[in-house]
Write a structure and sequence with these properties.
The protein is an alpha+beta fold. It is built from twelve helices and four strands, in the order ααααααααβααββαβα.
Protein backbone atom coordinates (compact mmCIF):
# COMPACT_ATOMS: atom_id res chain seq x y z
CA UNK A 1 0.00 0.00 0.00
CA UNK A 2 2.81 2.43 0.93
CA UNK A 3 4.63 1.73 -2.34
CA UNK A 4 1.45 2.31 -4.34
CA UNK A 5 0.76 5.64 -2.60
CA UNK A 6 4.38 6.70 -3.05
CA UNK A 7 4.23 5.72 -6.72
CA UNK A 8 1.11 7.81 -7.27
CA UNK A 9 2.40 10.83 -5.32
CA UNK A 10 5.94 11.00 -6.68
CA UNK A 11 5.76 9.30 -10.06
CA UNK A 12 2.14 9.78 -11.24
CA UNK A 13 1.67 6.01 -11.35
CA UNK A 14 4.13 5.79 -14.23
CA UNK A 15 6.10 2.96 -12.63
CA UNK A 16 3.54 0.26 -13.34
CA UNK A 17 5.89 -2.62 -12.59
CA UNK A 18 8.30 -0.88 -10.20
CA UNK A 19 10.79 -0.39 -13.02
CA UNK A 20 13.89 0.75 -11.15
CA UNK A 21 15.55 2.31 -14.19
CA UNK A 22 12.66 4.69 -14.91
CA UNK A 23 12.36 5.65 -11.24
CA UNK A 24 16.07 6.41 -11.12
CA UNK A 25 15.80 8.53 -14.27
CA UNK A 26 13.02 10.62 -12.71
CA UNK A 27 14.90 11.07 -9.45
CA UNK A 28 18.10 11.95 -11.30
CA UNK A 29 16.27 14.66 -13.26
CA UNK A 30 14.85 16.00 -10.01
CA UNK A 31 18.31 15.94 -8.43
CA UNK A 32 19.57 18.22 -11.21
CA UNK A 33 16.59 20.52 -10.65
CA UNK A 34 17.33 20.58 -6.92
CA UNK A 35 20.93 21.59 -7.62
CA UNK A 36 19.79 24.42 -9.91
CA UNK A 37 17.06 25.56 -7.53
CA UNK A 38 19.37 25.49 -4.48
CA UNK A 39 22.05 27.46 -6.35
CA UNK A 40 19.54 30.11 -7.47
CA UNK A 41 18.23 30.48 -3.93
CA UNK A 42 21.75 30.77 -2.55
CA UNK A 43 22.50 33.59 -4.97
CA UNK A 44 19.22 35.38 -4.23
CA UNK A 45 19.48 35.13 -0.45
CA UNK A 46 23.19 36.01 -0.47
CA UNK A 47 22.26 39.19 -2.33
CA UNK A 48 19.48 39.84 0.21
CA UNK A 49 21.95 39.33 3.06
CA UNK A 50 24.33 41.86 1.54
CA UNK A 51 21.48 44.34 1.07
CA UNK A 52 20.46 43.89 4.70
CA UNK A 53 23.91 45.10 5.72
CA UNK A 54 23.67 48.11 3.44
CA UNK A 55 20.02 49.16 3.79
CA UNK A 56 18.83 49.61 7.40
CA UNK A 57 15.26 48.82 6.32
CA UNK A 58 16.25 45.20 5.66
CA UNK A 59 18.28 44.68 8.85
CA UNK A 60 15.35 43.15 10.72
CA UNK A 61 15.22 40.36 8.13
CA UNK A 62 18.85 39.35 8.74
CA UNK A 63 17.96 36.17 10.78
CA UNK A 64 15.64 35.01 7.98
CA UNK A 65 18.37 35.36 5.37
CA UNK A 66 20.92 33.49 7.48
CA UNK A 67 18.56 30.57 8.26
CA UNK A 68 17.42 30.12 4.67
CA UNK A 69 21.03 30.37 3.41
CA UNK A 70 22.06 27.55 5.74
CA UNK A 71 19.13 25.37 4.61
CA UNK A 72 19.86 25.98 0.93
CA UNK A 73 23.56 25.33 1.45
CA UNK A 74 22.86 21.97 3.10
CA UNK A 75 20.37 21.08 0.37
CA UNK A 76 22.90 21.91 -2.35
CA UNK A 77 25.56 19.78 -0.64
CA UNK A 78 23.15 16.84 -0.35
CA UNK A 79 22.03 17.14 -3.98
CA UNK A 80 25.62 17.32 -5.24
CA UNK A 81 27.40 14.74 -3.12
CA UNK A 82 24.99 12.53 -1.15
CA UNK A 83 21.95 12.08 -3.40
CA UNK A 84 23.84 10.51 -6.36
CA UNK A 85 24.26 7.42 -4.17
CA UNK A 86 20.96 7.84 -2.31
CA UNK A 87 18.45 9.10 -4.86
CA UNK A 88 15.52 8.44 -2.53
CA UNK A 89 16.60 11.52 -0.55
CA UNK A 90 15.72 13.80 -3.48
CA UNK A 91 12.01 14.31 -2.55
CA UNK A 92 13.12 15.38 0.94
CA UNK A 93 15.69 17.82 -0.46
CA UNK A 94 13.08 19.30 -2.81
CA UNK A 95 10.63 19.69 0.07
CA UNK A 96 13.30 21.40 2.21
CA UNK A 97 14.01 23.91 -0.56
CA UNK A 98 10.30 24.57 -0.98
CA UNK A 99 9.71 25.09 2.73
CA UNK A 100 12.82 27.28 3.00
CA UNK A 101 11.45 29.57 0.31
CA UNK A 102 7.98 29.67 1.85
CA UNK A 103 9.40 30.19 5.35
CA UNK A 104 11.61 33.04 4.16
CA UNK A 105 8.66 34.73 2.49
CA UNK A 106 6.55 34.37 5.62
CA UNK A 107 9.40 35.62 7.79
CA UNK A 108 9.87 38.72 5.67
CA UNK A 109 6.12 39.41 5.60
CA UNK A 110 5.87 39.06 9.38
CA UNK A 111 8.94 41.20 10.10
CA UNK A 112 8.25 43.78 7.41
CA UNK A 113 4.50 43.66 6.62
CA UNK A 114 4.67 46.69 4.33
CA UNK A 115 7.05 44.81 1.98
CA UNK A 116 4.34 42.26 1.16
CA UNK A 117 7.02 39.80 0.14
CA UNK A 118 6.46 38.22 -3.28
CA UNK A 119 8.83 35.42 -2.26
CA UNK A 120 5.87 33.44 -0.92
CA UNK A 121 4.39 33.16 -4.38
CA UNK A 122 7.55 32.01 -6.12
CA UNK A 123 7.11 28.58 -4.59
CA UNK A 124 3.61 28.31 -6.03
CA UNK A 125 4.77 28.85 -9.61
CA UNK A 126 8.37 27.71 -9.82
CA UNK A 127 8.42 24.58 -7.67
CA UNK A 128 5.65 22.66 -9.54
CA UNK A 129 7.45 23.11 -12.87
CA UNK A 130 11.01 22.72 -11.61
CA UNK A 131 10.65 19.05 -10.75
CA UNK A 132 9.25 16.06 -12.62
CA UNK A 133 6.18 15.47 -10.53
CA UNK A 134 2.46 14.86 -10.99
CA UNK A 135 -0.58 17.01 -10.25
CA UNK A 136 -1.53 15.08 -7.12
CA UNK A 137 1.85 15.57 -5.43
CA UNK A 138 1.86 19.24 -6.48
CA UNK A 139 -1.58 19.67 -4.90
CA UNK A 140 -0.34 18.03 -1.68
CA UNK A 141 2.66 20.37 -1.64
CA UNK A 142 0.49 23.47 -2.16
CA UNK A 143 -1.89 22.35 0.62
CA UNK A 144 1.05 21.95 3.02
CA UNK A 145 2.21 25.46 2.09
CA UNK A 146 -1.30 26.81 2.54
CA UNK A 147 -1.72 25.27 6.00
CA UNK A 148 1.68 26.64 7.01
CA UNK A 149 0.67 30.10 5.83
CA UNK A 150 -2.66 29.98 7.67
CA UNK A 151 -1.17 28.69 10.93
CA UNK A 152 1.68 31.20 10.99
CA UNK A 153 0.00 34.14 9.28
CA UNK A 154 -3.24 34.15 11.25
CA UNK A 155 -1.29 34.72 14.47
CA UNK A 156 1.59 36.89 13.32
CA UNK A 157 0.38 38.96 10.34
CA UNK A 158 -1.68 42.08 10.24
CA UNK A 159 -5.26 41.01 9.32
CA UNK A 160 -5.31 43.10 6.14
CA UNK A 161 -1.91 41.78 5.04
CA UNK A 162 -2.99 38.22 5.93
CA UNK A 163 -6.15 38.45 3.79
CA UNK A 164 -4.12 39.91 0.92
CA UNK A 165 -1.54 37.14 1.20
CA UNK A 166 -4.09 34.30 1.38
CA UNK A 167 -6.01 35.64 -1.63
CA UNK A 168 -2.95 35.85 -3.80
CA UNK A 169 -1.69 32.53 -2.46
CA UNK A 170 -4.84 30.79 -3.73
CA UNK A 171 -4.61 32.53 -7.12
CA UNK A 172 -0.93 31.77 -7.62
CA UNK A 173 -1.42 28.24 -6.24
CA UNK A 174 -4.07 27.41 -8.84
CA UNK A 175 -1.92 28.85 -11.61
CA UNK A 176 1.07 26.82 -10.37
CA UNK A 177 -0.95 23.59 -10.28
CA UNK A 178 -2.25 24.14 -13.82
CA UNK A 179 1.23 24.99 -15.14
CA UNK A 180 2.72 21.96 -13.43
CA UNK A 181 -0.05 19.71 -14.78
CA UNK A 182 0.47 20.60 -18.43
CA UNK A 183 4.26 20.72 -18.30
CA UNK A 184 4.67 17.45 -16.38
CA UNK A 185 2.04 15.66 -18.45
CA UNK A 186 4.41 15.86 -21.41
CA UNK A 187 7.35 14.77 -19.23
CA UNK A 188 5.54 11.74 -17.88
CA UNK A 189 4.48 10.66 -21.34
CA UNK A 190 8.17 10.41 -22.15
CA UNK A 191 8.79 8.27 -19.06
CA UNK A 192 5.81 6.02 -19.81
CA UNK A 193 7.22 5.45 -23.29
CA UNK A 194 10.68 4.78 -21.82
CA UNK A 195 9.28 2.23 -19.38
CA UNK A 196 7.26 0.47 -22.11
CA UNK A 197 10.31 0.35 -24.38
CA UNK A 198 12.44 -1.10 -21.59
CA UNK A 199 9.84 -3.74 -20.74
CA UNK A 200 9.57 -4.71 -24.40
CA UNK A 201 13.35 -4.98 -24.69
CA UNK A 202 13.49 -7.14 -21.55
CA UNK A 203 10.72 -9.37 -22.91
CA UNK A 204 12.52 -9.76 -26.24
CA UNK A 205 15.74 -10.63 -24.45
CA UNK A 206 13.89 -13.13 -22.27
CA UNK A 207 12.43 -14.93 -25.29
CA UNK A 208 15.65 -14.74 -27.30
CA UNK A 209 18.15 -15.89 -24.68
CA UNK A 210 16.23 -17.76 -21.98
CA UNK A 211 14.54 -21.14 -21.98
CA UNK A 212 10.85 -20.63 -21.24
CA UNK A 213 10.39 -23.93 -19.35
CA UNK A 214 13.30 -23.66 -16.89
CA UNK A 215 14.20 -19.96 -16.89
CA UNK A 216 17.82 -20.85 -17.62
CA UNK A 217 19.76 -19.43 -20.55
CA UNK A 218 19.14 -21.28 -23.81
CA UNK A 219 21.27 -22.71 -26.61
CA UNK A 220 21.47 -19.38 -28.41
CA UNK A 221 22.93 -17.73 -25.31
CA UNK A 222 25.26 -20.72 -24.94
CA UNK A 223 26.51 -20.39 -28.54
CA UNK A 224 27.24 -16.69 -28.05
CA UNK A 225 29.06 -17.43 -24.79
CA UNK A 226 31.18 -20.09 -26.51
CA UNK A 227 31.98 -17.65 -29.32
CA UNK A 228 32.97 -15.03 -26.75
CA UNK A 229 35.18 -17.46 -24.83
CA UNK A 230 36.84 -18.72 -28.01
CA UNK A 231 38.28 -15.24 -28.53
CA UNK A 232 39.66 -14.96 -25.01
CA UNK A 233 39.60 -17.80 -22.51
CA UNK A 234 39.32 -16.64 -18.89
CA UNK A 235 41.63 -18.28 -16.39
CA UNK A 236 40.45 -20.14 -14.43
CA UNK A 237 37.51 -21.56 -16.39
CA UNK A 238 35.62 -24.80 -15.76
CA UNK A 239 32.91 -26.39 -17.89
CA UNK A 240 30.37 -28.85 -16.50
CA UNK A 241 28.30 -30.92 -18.92
CA UNK A 242 25.16 -32.37 -17.31
CA UNK A 243 22.53 -34.79 -18.57
CA UNK A 244 19.40 -36.00 -16.77
CA UNK A 245 19.28 -39.74 -16.14
CA UNK A 246 16.09 -41.60 -16.87
CA UNK A 247 14.18 -38.85 -18.68
CA UNK A 248 13.08 -41.13 -21.52
CA UNK A 249 11.90 -43.75 -19.03
CA UNK A 250 9.90 -41.11 -17.12
CA UNK A 251 8.28 -39.94 -20.36
CA UNK A 252 7.46 -43.51 -21.44
CA UNK A 253 6.11 -44.76 -18.12
CA UNK A 254 4.68 -41.70 -16.40
CA UNK A 255 3.96 -39.37 -19.31
CA UNK A 256 5.46 -36.17 -20.65
CA UNK A 257 4.15 -34.18 -17.70
CA UNK A 258 6.49 -36.22 -15.49
CA UNK A 259 9.33 -35.61 -17.94
CA UNK A 260 8.70 -31.86 -17.82
CA UNK A 261 8.69 -32.02 -14.02
CA UNK A 262 12.03 -33.82 -14.12
CA UNK A 263 13.55 -31.16 -16.42
CA UNK A 264 12.26 -28.27 -14.28
CA UNK A 265 13.40 -29.98 -11.08
CA UNK A 266 16.88 -30.60 -12.52
CA UNK A 267 17.15 -26.93 -13.52
CA UNK A 268 16.14 -25.93 -10.00
CA UNK A 269 18.82 -28.18 -8.45
CA UNK A 270 21.47 -26.80 -10.83
CA UNK A 271 20.45 -23.22 -10.04
CA UNK A 272 20.72 -23.80 -6.30
CA UNK A 273 24.09 -25.53 -6.65
CA UNK A 274 25.96 -23.25 -9.05
CA UNK A 275 26.42 -19.52 -9.55
CA UNK A 276 22.84 -18.67 -10.50
CA UNK A 277 21.12 -18.74 -13.86
CA UNK A 278 23.72 -16.63 -15.68
CA UNK A 279 26.21 -19.51 -15.71
CA UNK A 280 23.82 -22.36 -16.57
CA UNK A 281 22.54 -23.18 -20.05
CA UNK A 282 19.90 -25.65 -21.21
CA UNK A 283 21.33 -26.72 -24.57
CA UNK A 284 18.96 -29.61 -25.30
CA UNK A 285 15.97 -31.54 -24.02
CA UNK A 286 17.76 -33.05 -21.01
CA UNK A 287 21.21 -31.53 -21.51
CA UNK A 288 22.69 -28.65 -19.54
CA UNK A 289 26.04 -26.88 -19.54
CA UNK A 290 27.58 -24.82 -16.75
CA UNK A 291 30.40 -22.40 -17.60
CA UNK A 292 32.17 -21.06 -14.53
CA UNK A 293 35.12 -18.75 -14.14
CA UNK A 294 36.21 -20.93 -11.22
CA UNK A 295 38.73 -23.70 -10.66
CA UNK A 296 37.75 -27.34 -11.07
CA UNK A 297 38.07 -27.83 -7.30
CA UNK A 298 35.43 -25.13 -6.73
CA UNK A 299 33.25 -26.65 -9.45
CA UNK A 300 33.38 -30.03 -7.73
CA UNK A 301 32.16 -28.44 -4.50
CA UNK A 302 29.17 -27.16 -6.48
CA UNK A 303 28.64 -30.68 -7.84
CA UNK A 304 28.59 -32.05 -4.30
CA UNK A 305 25.88 -29.52 -3.43
CA UNK A 306 24.02 -30.53 -6.58
CA UNK A 307 24.11 -34.20 -5.59
CA UNK A 308 22.60 -33.34 -2.22
CA UNK A 309 19.96 -31.07 -3.77
CA UNK A 310 19.01 -33.79 -6.24
CA UNK A 311 18.71 -36.30 -3.41
CA UNK A 312 16.46 -33.96 -1.41
CA UNK A 313 14.24 -33.02 -4.37
CA UNK A 314 10.76 -34.45 -4.49
CA UNK A 315 8.26 -33.81 -7.26
CA UNK A 316 4.56 -34.48 -7.62
CA UNK A 317 5.01 -37.31 -10.14
CA UNK A 318 8.73 -38.05 -9.89
CA UNK A 319 10.28 -38.82 -6.52
CA UNK A 320 13.95 -38.20 -7.28
CA UNK A 321 16.50 -36.79 -9.71
CA UNK A 322 19.76 -38.22 -11.01
CA UNK A 323 22.11 -36.20 -13.20
CA UNK A 324 25.27 -37.40 -14.99
CA UNK A 325 28.04 -34.79 -15.05
CA UNK A 326 31.44 -34.34 -16.63
CA UNK A 327 33.90 -31.53 -15.83
CA UNK A 328 36.97 -30.10 -17.52
CA UNK A 329 38.97 -26.98 -16.76
CA UNK A 330 41.77 -24.77 -18.02
CA UNK A 331 44.03 -26.58 -15.55
CA UNK A 332 44.25 -29.39 -18.13
CA UNK A 333 43.14 -27.85 -21.42
CA UNK A 334 44.31 -24.64 -23.07
CA UNK A 335 41.75 -24.29 -25.87
CA UNK A 336 37.97 -24.14 -25.57
CA UNK A 337 37.19 -26.84 -28.12
CA UNK A 338 39.26 -29.43 -26.25
CA UNK A 339 37.75 -28.33 -22.95
CA UNK A 340 34.16 -28.77 -24.18
CA UNK A 341 34.89 -32.13 -25.79
CA UNK A 342 36.61 -33.42 -22.65
CA UNK A 343 33.71 -32.38 -20.40
CA UNK A 344 31.22 -34.00 -22.78
CA UNK A 345 33.24 -37.22 -22.94
CA UNK A 346 33.48 -37.43 -19.15
CA UNK A 347 29.76 -36.88 -18.83
CA UNK A 348 29.13 -39.65 -21.40
CA UNK A 349 31.36 -42.03 -19.41
CA UNK A 350 29.55 -41.12 -16.17
CA UNK A 351 26.22 -41.81 -17.84
CA UNK A 352 27.41 -45.17 -19.20
CA UNK A 353 28.52 -46.23 -15.72
CA UNK A 354 25.19 -45.10 -14.28
CA UNK A 355 23.18 -47.30 -16.66
CA UNK A 356 25.53 -50.25 -16.15
CA UNK A 357 25.11 -50.03 -12.37
CA UNK A 358 21.32 -49.64 -12.55
CA UNK A 359 20.98 -52.37 -15.17
CA UNK A 360 18.87 -50.19 -17.40
CA UNK A 361 19.28 -49.71 -21.12
CA UNK A 362 21.22 -46.61 -21.97
CA UNK A 363 19.64 -44.60 -24.68
CA UNK A 364 21.82 -44.07 -27.72
CA UNK A 365 23.47 -40.76 -28.19
Amino acid sequence: MYSKIKNELLFAGVIKNSNGKVRKDILEDNRKSAIFWAAIQLIFWSFSLIMSRIEPEYTDCLPVYIIVLVICGIALYLALYICPKHLNLIPGVAMALNMALLGAGLGITVLKPHLRSAVIFCTLLIVPVSYVTDTLSTLVLILIDFLTLVIVGSHRMDPAIFRWTVTFFVIFGLVGILMGHFINKTRFERYVFAESAMQLAELQTRYAYYDQMTGLKNRRAYSEKVEQLSKKMPVPCTVVMADINGLKEANDTLGHEAGDELIIGSAECLRKSFDGIDTIYRIGGDEFTVIMERTEIEAKKCLERMEKNCGDWKGRLVRGISISCGTASTDDYSDLDSLLKAADQKMYEFKSNYYQKTGKDRRKR
